[in-house]
Amino acid sequence: MSARPSARNSDTRTRLLEAAMSEFIEAGYAGTDTNRIARRAGYAPQTFYRWFKDKAAVMAEVLAVWDEAEVAMWRAVIEDQHLTAAELAESCVDNVRPFLTFRLNLRAVLPQVPDIAARRTQGRRQLMQELAPLVAGHLEPEALGSLLVQIDQLGEAIARGDLADLGLSGTVAQQALARLIAQLRGG
Which of 44, 55, 137, 182 is 20 to 30 Å apart from 164, CA to CA? Predict the structure, then answer.
């Protein structure tokens, strides 16, 4: 007889993951502690440790959820041709903005916490594997990886306001982002 998590247990875990993501977005990895995650989810601090070994373990799980969402988003970008590449570029930037603190803190944590770095690498590899069949006719793995990194970096730079800080409109960068997305889609 295998043990299945009850709906309540699953809800507890989900609430802890959602609280952790919110904490990491708002305070970053270094500014987040497990007690705050538990309290934000509506639980006593010891409840956290029934589900996760430590802060790094919950961060790795948050990354797993984020990776799943990223795969779904990129599949939709490639498969759904209803939006233009320019519209997708704008949407890409809009979707990055709420996660800027999380993304910046993630970069800082990767060299310091090997488990989180390994989880991030695993997520990126999974993304490449999932997308490879969708772009097999026009992109080799090296080109796919390069495009994904360029889209990610340029989208984040626009969302951060790097071009606006230079007194630029960002129009050229937005157009470049649209071209990268069009390449990803095979256009």
Answer: 182
